[in-house]
C-alpha cells in the first residue's frame, strides 16, 4: 500500500478504534516485554519497507502494551485524556508540519498561538499584558519562569546574568515549600542556581505552605536577591499555598513570585474554585499544564510572565529591541527555550474552542465532584481512611498499615479495572487518586470503588 490518502484513512480508523474501545480495555496492560523486543527490535534492517506494512507492524506489536491512561478509569499521576477537537487538531498539526518559530516560518502557527495565549490568560485570570510561551510541560515552564526570575532579581542587584553567567554573581535565595514539586529543584539545577539555594518552608496539615513560616523566612534575610516558588495544587493533596500572603510578603521584599500551578491553576477557570487561587494576579510568573487538566495530548504546557522584558531577555536570542519592535505578530520562539518547535497552539486553540468558558469550568467542577464521590465512598469502606482534605481533584487513601496499602495498590493495578498509583505522604504509604479526565463518569468512580473493595477484601 503506497497511497497516502489510504494510509491516513486507515490510520485515522485505527486511532478511532483505539479511542472508542479504551473505556473497556484493561487499564494496565499485561505487557510482554520479551515479545515486544522480539517483534520490533534487533538490528535495523538494511532494507526499508512499505509505509502501510510499517504501521501495521508497529500497531500490532504495540497496542497490547499500551497503558489506557487516556481512558476514564486511569487515576494515576495527574493525567488527562484528550478532548476530541484536540486529538483532531494534533493530527492536523502533524499533517501541516509547521515550524512555530515566528511569523515568517508560519504565520498561522504564530497567530493561533497568540490567540490561544490570550484565551488562556483570560480563563486563568492572569494579567492581560502577561507574556507567555507554549512549552512541553511544567518542567520546562518552571525552567522558563525561573530563568525570567533569575534575570530580574540579578538585574536589580546590578548583575547581567545572560552576559556574565553565574560565576561571581550575587547569591540567589529561593524560598519554597517543603512539599514543592521535584521539578522546581531540577529547574534550579539546570539554571545553575542549584537545589541548595532553596530554603524550605514548613507545610501545614494538608501540604500547603504555612503562611507565617513563609513570611518569617522571607523577612529573615531582606537583602539578597530572592525568588519565592509558590504551589497551586500540591501533587499529593491538591492543597494550595496562600498566594495572597506569598505575593504580599514578596512584594515588601522585592522578591519574585513564581507559581507552579501544573494542574491546580485550572481552579481559576471555575467560579466555584477560583477562591483557591485568590491573589494569583499579583505573582510574577505562572505555569500550568495543558496535558493534565485541559485534556490536551502530550506534550503541552504554558508559562506566563508579568514581566515580558525579563521573560524575553532570558529566552530570546534576538536583542530586546527586536522583541519590542517585532510588529503585529509576536515571535513564539522568543519566550521558550526551543527554536524549532511543534505548533502546539493549534491543539490549545481547538480544546479551548471546543469547551468554551463554561465547558472549562464544568470540566474542573465535574472532576472535583468525582473526587469527592471517591472520598465519600471509600471512607464508607471498613479499613479505608481518607488521609487528605479533598479540596480539589486529589484523594489520598490508606488501608491500615503501609504493607497492606502497598498490597492494595499492587492488587488494583493488576486487577485492570482502574489504575491508581502510590505515594508516601507525611510518612505514610497511601493510594493516590487524581481525577482529571474529561470522560470520567460517576459510574466509572463507582466501578473503581467496587474494584478497590474487592481487592481489599482479598487481602484480609
Ligand atoms: C505534574 C507536575 C509538575 C511537572 O509537570 P510536567 O508537565 O510533568 O513537566 C510540576 N509541578 C506540579 C505541581 C505537577 O503536578
- The CATH architecture assignment of the largest domain turns out to be 3-Layer(aba) Sandwich
Q: Quickly name the level 1 CATH class of the largest domain.
A: Alpha Beta
Count of helical segments? 15
Radius of gyration: 23 Å
Task: Report strand %.
Answer: 5-15%
List each distinct ligand once: pyridoxal-5'-phosphate
Shape: globular
Question: How are helices and strands ordered from N to C?
Answer: HHHHHEHHEHEHEHEEEHHHEEHEEH
Q: How is the secondary structure organized here?
A:
Elements: H1 4-21, H2 33-40, H3 51-62, H4 84-96, H5 107-124, E1 131-135, H6 138-156, H7 161-164, E2 173-177, H8 182-190, E3 198-201, H9 211-220, E4 226-231, H10 243-253, E5 256-260, E6 285-289, E7 301-305, H11 308-315, H12 320-324, H13 345-379, E8 385-386, E9 394-398, H14 402-415, E10 421-425, E11 428-434, H15 442-459
Parallel strand pairs: 2-3, 2-4, 4-5, 5-6
Antiparallel strand pairs: 1-7, 6-7, 8-9, 9-11, 10-11
Helix pairs in contact: 2-3, 4-13, 5-13, 6-8, 6-11, 9-10, 13-15, 14-15
Bound molecules: pyridoxal-5'-phosphate.
The site of pyridoxal-5'-phosphate has 14 residues, from α6.
Amino acid at each position: 500500500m503506497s497511497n497516502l490518502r489510504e494510509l491516513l484513512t486507515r490510520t485515522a480508523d485505527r486511532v478511532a478504534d483505539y479511542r472508542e474501545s479504551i473505556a473497556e480495555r484493561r487499564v494496565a496492560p499485561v505487557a510482554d516485554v520479551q515479545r515486544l523486543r522480539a517483534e520490533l527490535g534487533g538490528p535495523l534492517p538494511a532494507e526499508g519497507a512499505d509505509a502501510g506494512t510499517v504501521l501495521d507492524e508497529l500497531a500490532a506489536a504495540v497496542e497490547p502494551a499500551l497503558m489506557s491512561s487516556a481512558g476514564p478509569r486511569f487515576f494515576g499521576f495527574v493525567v488527562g485524556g484528550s478532548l476530541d477537537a484536540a486529538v483532531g487538531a494534533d493530527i492536523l498539526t502533524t499533517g501541516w508540519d509547521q515550524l512555530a518559530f515566528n511569523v515568517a516560518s508560519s504565520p498561522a502557527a504564530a497567530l493561533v498561538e497568540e490567540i490561544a495565549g490570550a484565551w488562556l490568560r483570560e480563563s486563568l485570570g492572569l494579567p492581560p499584558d502577561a507574556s507567555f510561551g507554549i512549552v512541553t510541560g511544567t518542567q520546562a515552564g518552571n525552567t522558563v519562569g525561573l530563568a525570567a526570575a533569575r534575570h530580574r532579581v540579578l538585574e536589580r542587584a546590578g548583575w547581567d546574568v545572560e552576559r556574565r553567567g553565574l560565576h561571581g554573581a550575587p547569591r540567589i535565595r529561593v524560598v519554597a515549600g517543603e512539599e514543592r514539586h521535584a521539578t522546581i529543584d531540577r529547574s534550579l539545577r539546570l539554571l545553575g542556581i542549584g537545589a541548595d539555594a532553596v530554603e524550605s518552608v514548613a507545610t501545614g496539615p494538608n501540604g500547603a505552605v504555612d503562611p507565617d513560616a513563609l513570611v518569617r523566612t522571607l523577612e529573615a534575610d531582606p537583602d539578597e536577591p530572592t525568588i519565592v516558588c509558590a504551589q497551586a495544587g500540591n501533587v499529593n493533596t491538591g492543597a494550595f499555598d496562600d498566594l495572597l500572603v506569598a505575593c504580599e510578603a514578596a512584594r515588601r521584599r522585592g522578591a519574585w513570585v513564581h507559581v507552579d500551578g501544573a494542574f491546580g491553576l485550572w481552579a481559576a477557570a471555575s467560579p466555584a474554585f477560583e477562591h483557591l487561587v485568590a491573589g494569583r494576579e499579583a505573582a510574577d510568573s505562572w505555569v500550568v499544564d495543558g496535558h493534565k487538566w485541559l485534556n490536551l495530548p502530550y506534550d503541552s504546557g504554558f508559562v506566563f510572565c508579568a514581566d515580558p522584558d525579563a521573560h524575553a531577555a532570558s529566552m530570546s536570542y534576538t536583542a530586546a529591541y527586536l522583541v519590542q519592535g517585532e510588529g503585529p505578530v509576536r515571535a513564539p520562539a522568543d519566550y521558550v527555550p526551543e527554536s524549532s518547535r511543534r505548533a502546539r497552539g493549534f491543539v490549545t486553540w481547538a480544546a479551548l474552542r471546543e469547551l468554551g468558558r463554561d465547558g472549562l469550568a464544568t470540566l474542573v467542577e465535574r472532576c472535583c465532584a468525582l473526587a469527592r464521590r471517591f472520598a465519600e465512598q471509600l471512607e464508607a469502606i471498613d479499613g479505608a481512611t481518607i488521609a487528605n482534605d479533598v479540596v480539589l481533584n486529589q484523594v489520598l487513601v490508606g488501608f491500615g498499615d503501609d504493607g497492606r496499602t502497598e498490597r492494595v495498590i499492587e492488587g488494583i493495578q493488576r486487577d485492570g479495572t482502574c489504575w491508581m498509583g502510590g505515594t508516601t505522604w507525611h510518612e505514610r504509604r497511601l493510594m493516590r487518586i487524581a481525577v482529571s479526565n474529561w470522560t470520567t463518569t460517576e459510574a466509572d468512580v463507582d466501578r473503581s470503588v467496587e474494584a478497590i473493595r474487592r481487592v481489599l477484601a482479598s487481602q484480609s
